[in-house]
């Protein structure tokens, strides 16, 4: 019966919202006794999955005690087939524990209290393989004993959620997205039409690829099973788009990891030690297990390896730990967006992995076109974008395509990494950079099939005034490094100088960060690199961080402000936060990762404004910019949908963007794609709706700090200081290039767990419960991804 949607009928016929469904002990009500039954059966399933212990109880009611007890057990209350699943039930996606909470006979608080007394934790990280595949189906193994299918308490939110809309079906794949320097369009700005691209046929496999479609998934499952036997507290979450782990925590630390001769030093392993530890970890160490040849990061191309890139850095909250950034490569060619973070403790043991990996389903790494041909194809595509058309806005202040510097780098492009809803083939490409534009050119055919703009819209201060000109560098008016200052300074230059200092001081005083790039460490003498700003740039109605030199940027790592835009401290904080994100080497500026990038900038921009404006701080953004006010702001974290003067919502996904329809979604069920007119008709589809979908994580952050009711979920706020601590740790320690909205919310929760367990920052387990509640309120939970 559970395999068909009979559960909704059971709920409708049950007394008290499903009493008959969830009455596990048969006493006619749903209470603590049912939680005890749940815990006992869950423990039996978990023991069978992790310790290969035999079953002693008929858990699925088929009259036989065998190795299949974890399939359709009586505690499978949502009909997923196992206790690992999250499935739609009574209007929202619920775990089994959430379904039990939905049927709870007592008050909401009573269920939460009973959970605590029983020792069940509704906020524990997911322990299951494939968080969104909740129904076993024909490809499941014949037996569940020893296969780690059980997901003991694998839910990510309180079970007291009242209602939530189901996740909409995934849109068709293969939508081109692009960058947008100015964010959402200015009033009256023409909008662009949606752009589409046709998928090519999947690349055929060869002798160096895994031939069978399910072989990678089976190898990953086998490796995780083996790892769990060696690491009893191991918890793994699988990225459903790639089939590979996106997080692995709970390793039992092991010193002297394979391939590493750790330097015995009071400072812990050296940078070279960390490199050997991390790279050995992906080959012969923790992720390959000492008892199984299977790999948790199995790839279809066996030549793919994981390498450490850049210099490892100390964990900002735990100085005895080191965080290394890793990247997948095949034949020395990087896989775009395939970065991750590996944490190494002082003794040289790996304790955590967070990242996005590709199956690298590609055979040939030799291109058929040259770099020069790829660059010319990119210039041709860029000319089309700049020229515009009947329903396509021409680009303001475009680069000189014929003479602008260009570079081409061989790159493996896996659409599953860039866009979790995409189903296109993995390709060998040239990644062509022309100023701030990034264009992917198929290395075989020369097709320009994907592009975006990498210019997010960093401490001594240096200010240049362009006087409304667009010719850099303008006139230098202040320089703290050389102690220069002009006789007269206009208001834009002064506010850029003052507000840049406020942002610098905020990150230093709260987190010990020296400048946007933190290049000197805690004892640095200069306070990080100079923060250079250019004010009154033409008639630009915007401000932005420059990641590289271009026609709109005099150099990399500087700020550019349009007239009046340096006055808004939340905007200054927002843009400099983009610089911090860029130097943490994470969060690609497109699709969901770009929305996370934008949200973190909004979060810190708002918190910085509140920090200097106590008690008058607010949760609106850009209210001091020309054309906006506190009553009609650019964005609102408290109310992302926005309302007009009549109290009507300004968020309608089916209508083009305008000043009267410029709201953002406030829950993941409403996440936008370039197929939605609100986003798709903006210039280059707003890089995949980054300035729209950031509202979801913004609302999540607001609820963490201030609390409130949202779609029937109650959240008790834990305050702005704790929100800042969680956001900074997530930004610096928990994200990788391709982290989406769900992964970012999980990063906040994981940060809370880590800080609470270590007794840092005043965090408590109750705080983490509220972070979990905020996740549920906006739908940013595994299973909705």
According to DSSP, the number of beta strands is 22
Give the averaged pLDDT, no decimals. Answer: 78
Largest sheet: 6 strands, antiparallel
Label the structural class: alpha+beta
User: Into which percent range does the helicity of residues fall?
Assistant: 25-40%
What gyration radius follows from the Cα positions, in whole Å?
26 Å
Strand order of the largest sheet: 3-4-8-7-6-5
Q: Uncertain regions: pLDDT < 50 for 5+ in a row?
A: 122-142, 147-213, 256-262, 521-527
Strand portion? 15-25%
Oligomeric state of the chains present here: single chain
Separation of the first and last Cα atoms = 27 Å
Number of helices: 17
Shape: globular
Give a quick precis of the structure.
The chain is of the alpha+beta class.
What this model shows, in words?
With 785 residues, the protein is of the alpha+beta class. 29% of the residues lie in helices and 15% in strands. It is built from 17 helices and 22 strands. Helix 12 crosses helix 14, helix 14 packs across helix 17 and helix 16 runs antiparallel to helix 17. The chain is globular. The two termini are 27 Å apart.
């Amino acid at each position: 019966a559970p395999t068909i949607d009979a559960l909704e009928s059971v709920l409708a016929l049950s007394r008290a919202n499903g009493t008959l469904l969830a009455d596990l002990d048969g006493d006619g009500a749903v209470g603590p006794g049912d939680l005890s039954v749940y815990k006992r059966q869950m423990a039996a399933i978990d023991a069978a999955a992790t310790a290969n212990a035999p079953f002693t109880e008929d858990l699925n009611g088929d009259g036989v005690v065998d190795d299949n007890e974890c399939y359709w057990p009586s505690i499978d209350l949502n009909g997923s087939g196992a206790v690992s699943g999250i499935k739609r039930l009574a209007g929202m996606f619920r775990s089994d524990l959430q379904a039990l909470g939905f049927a709870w006979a007592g008050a909401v608080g009573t269920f939460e209290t009973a959970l605590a007394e029983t020792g069940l934790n509704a906020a524990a990280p997911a322990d299951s393989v494939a968080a969104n595949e909740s129904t076993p189906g024909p490809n499941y193994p014949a037996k569940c004993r020893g296969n780690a299918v059980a997901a003991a308490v694998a839910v990510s939110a309180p079970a007291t959620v009242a209602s939530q809309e189901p996740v909409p079906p995934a849109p068709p794949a293969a939508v081109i997205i692009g960058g947008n320097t100015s964010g959402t369009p200015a009033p009256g700005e023409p909008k662009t039409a949606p752009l589409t691209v046709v998928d090519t046929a999947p690349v055929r496999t060869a002798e160096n690829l895994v031939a069978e479609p399910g072989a990678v998934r089976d190898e990953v499952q086998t490796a995780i099973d083996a790892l769990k036997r060696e690491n009893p507290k191991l918890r793994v979450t699988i990225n459903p788009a790639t089939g590979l782990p996106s997080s692995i925590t709970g390793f039992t630390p092991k010193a002297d990891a394979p391939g590493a001769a750790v330097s015995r030093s009071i400072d812990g392993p050296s940078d070279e030690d960390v490199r050997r530890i991390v790279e050995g970890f992906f080959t012969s160490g923790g992720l390959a297990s000492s008892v199984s040849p299977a790999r948790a990061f199995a790839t279809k191309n066996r030549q793919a390896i994981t390498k450490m890139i850049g210099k490892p850095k100390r964990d900002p909250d735990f100085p005895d730990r080191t965080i290394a950034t890793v990247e997948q490569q095949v034949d020395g060619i990087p896989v775009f967006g395939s970065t991750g973070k590996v944490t190494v403790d002082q003794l040289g043991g790996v304790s955590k992995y967070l990242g996005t990996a590709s199956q690298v389903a590609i055979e040939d790494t030799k291109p058929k076109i040259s770099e020069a041909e790829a660059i010319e194809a990119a210039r041709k595509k860029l000319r089309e974008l700049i020229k515009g058309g009947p329903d396509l806005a021409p680009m303001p202040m475009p680069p000189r395509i014929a003479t602008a510097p260009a570079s081409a780098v061989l790159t493996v492009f896996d659409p599953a990494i860039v866009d979790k809803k995409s189903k296109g083939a993995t390709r060998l490409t040239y990644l062509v950079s022309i100023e701030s534009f990034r264009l992917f050119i198929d290395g075989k055919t020369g097709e320009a099939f994907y592009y975006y703009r990498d210019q997010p819209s960093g401490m001594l201060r240096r200010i240049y005034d362009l006087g409304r000109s667009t010719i850099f560098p303008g006139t230098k008016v202040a320089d703290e490094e050389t102690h220069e200052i002009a006789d007269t300074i206009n208001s834009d230059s002064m506010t850029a100088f003052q507000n840049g200092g406020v942002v610098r001081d905020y990150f230093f005083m709260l987190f010990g960060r020296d400048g946007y790039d933190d290049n000197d460490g805690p004892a640095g003498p200069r306070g990080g690199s100079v923060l250079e700003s250019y004010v009154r740039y033409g008639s630009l109605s915007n401000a932005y961080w420059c990641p590289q030199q271009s026609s709109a940027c005099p150099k990399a790592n500087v700020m550019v402000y349009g007239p009046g835009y340096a006055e808004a401290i939340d905007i200054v904080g927002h843009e400099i936060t983009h610089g911090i994100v860029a130097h943490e080497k994470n969060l690609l500026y497109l699709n969901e990762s770009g929305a996370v990038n934008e949200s973190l900038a909004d979060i810190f921009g708002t918190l910085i404004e509140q920090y200097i404006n106590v008690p008058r701080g607010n949760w609106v953004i850009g209210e001091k910019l020309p054309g906006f006010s506190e009553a009609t702001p650019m964005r609102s974290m408290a109310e992302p949908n926005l309302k007009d003067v009549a109290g009507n919502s300004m968020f309608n996904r089916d209508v083009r963007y305008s000043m009267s329809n410029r709201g953002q979604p406030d829950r993941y069920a409403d996440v936008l794609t370039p197929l939605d007119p609100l986003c798709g008709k903006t210039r280059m589809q707003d890089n995949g709706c980054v300035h729209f979908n950031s509202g979801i994580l913004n609302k999540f952050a607001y609820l963490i700090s201030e609390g409130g009711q949202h779609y029937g979920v109650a959240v008790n706020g834990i305050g702005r200081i704790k929100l800042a601590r969680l956001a900074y740790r997530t930004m610096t320690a928990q994200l990788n290039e391709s982290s989406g909205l769900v992964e970012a919310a999980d990063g906040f929760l994981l940060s809370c767990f880590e800080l609470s367990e270590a007794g840092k920052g005043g965090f408590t387990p109750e705080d983490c419960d509220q972070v979990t509640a905020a996740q549920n309120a906006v739908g940013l939970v595994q299973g909705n991804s």
